[in-house]
Specification:
Layout: H1 4-9, H2 30-42, H3 46-58, H4 62-75, H5 80-92, H6 96-109, H7 114-126, H8 130-142, H9 151-163, H10 167-180, H11 185-197, H12 201-213, H13 219-231, H14 235-243, H15 248-291
Length: about 290
């Protein structure tokens, strides 16, 4: 199902994608930007610039962080840590191609950096290149000590696997991540969606309802849960789940979309079964001819 990309990408912690409900950008006024630029010019030390970049990025302002990191990169152009931080700031700004270049530069100097490998994987996923991303995400996990593997690497790996249609592998990745971080909403959300993409609606609902019960009541979780209800044909539950979030017109639009998805899935299943039946009949005829 093509919907997997939009469903899953929103839950990669490192990305702030343009998809509705995922963006987390901080608006900065002209005066604030000027003040930040003055502060950047005053700082002469690479360490101080990186520290300020880290503080502003953690504070939710990747644009300001980028200025500090860019200045640091001019002072120390070969520093892989700076390039890696540039990459994550660019990811948060949805500048995926430039982020890819920054991560590749970091890896050119430090090829086994697990964090840079994960960042590059995320940037490639955002550009709809999950097959390429898989190699880097697997390397990120392989280059980490077992006790220090970042649960986010498993989450990103699961997303890439789901996007390539390997839902069984994706669920294994999410579950390995949950062993590291049992209460993580992104991992649980993606596990639920992966189950839905395999047609395992009851299991999917159980997972997503658990997320909602445990306080994961964000708009994204509710929308995903409503989508799974819709795919499972539980229209009343789907409508109830999103009624407090949208107006009447949007609820009606969403419900129409859920019904369309359900019909589309049924048609694709019927086509697949028909194709399988045709192949079996053709094989049986070939065997019968040889028997003569």
């Amino acid at each position: 199902m093509k919907i997997s990309r939009n469903l899953l990408l929103c839950s990669i912690g490192a990305l702030a994608l343009a998809t509705a409900g995922c963006s987390n950008k901080t608006s900065v006024t002209g005066e604030q930007a000027k003040a930040q630029q003055k502060q950047v010019r005053k700082l002469k030390s690479v360490t101080a610039l990186m520290r300020m970049g880290d503080q502003t990025r953690e504070g939710g302002d990747p644009v300001a962080a980028l200025r500090f990191y860019a200045r640091a990169a001019r002072l120390a152009p070969g520093n892989p840590e700076i390039q890696k931080r540039l990459g994550y700031s660019l990811l948060a700004m949805a500048r995926y191609r430039t982020a890819t270049m920054a991560f590749r530069q970091a890896l050119a100097t430090k090829p086994a950096d697990a964090s840079a490998l994960r960042g590059l994987g995320n940037a490639l996923i955002a550009q709809d290149r999950p097959k390429v991303a898989l190699n880097f995400l697997k390397s990120a996990i392989a280059n980490s000590a077992k006790t220090k593997i970042d649960y986010r690497a498993y989450n990103s790996l699961g997303v890439a696997l789901d996007m390539t249609g390997d839902h069984v592998g994706a669920r294994q990745a999410y579950r390995l991540g949950l062993e590291k971080k049992p209460e993580n909403v992104a991992l649980r959300n993606n596990l639920g969606l992966s189950l839905a993409l395999s047609g395992k609606y009851r299991q999917s609902m159980a997972v997503l309802e658990g997320v909602a019960r445990d306080g994961g009541t964000s708009a994204r979780v509710r929308q995903n849960l409503a989508l799974v209800y819709g795919l499972a044909g539980r229209n009343k539950m789907a409508k109830r789940t999103i009624s407090n979030q949208f107006g009447e017109a949007e609820v009606t639009s969403n419900m129409t979309y859920y019904r369309w998805l359900r019909r589309s899935k049924r048609k694709s299943t019927r086509k697949a079964r028909a194709a399988q039946g045709l192949a079996q009949r053709q094989t049986a005829r070939r065997i019968a001819k040889k028997a003569r």
